[in-house]
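This part of the workshop introduces the protein records we will be handling. Each record describes a single protein and holds just a pair of labelled lines. Instead of coordinates, the fold is spelled out as a row of discrete tokens. To make this concrete, we reproduce a full record directly below:
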Amino acid sequence: MADPKHLDQITERVERLLLRHEELQRTNALLVEQVHTLQAERDSLKSRLMAARARIDALLERLAPSQTDTTRSPSDTHKDHS
């Protein structure tokens, strides 16, 4: 049979490993929760960015016709009247 002192050492080590395993499981669960939170935040920011881009694109389209009128040079308007 194995030495009782040796068995006690093994038992103590196994118990420490089990505690460490439980601690790592809790830490992992917290990290998974943080990842999910950050993914949701990222998705929300992406959605807001896309909406802002759409608004900017719409504004640019509204400005485009008036920009072409104001950017014409006087020689362009003179050619139109010829």
The chain has a mean pLDDT of 87. Residues 57 and 78 are 32 Å apart (CA to CA). Residues 4-70 form the longest helix (67 residues).
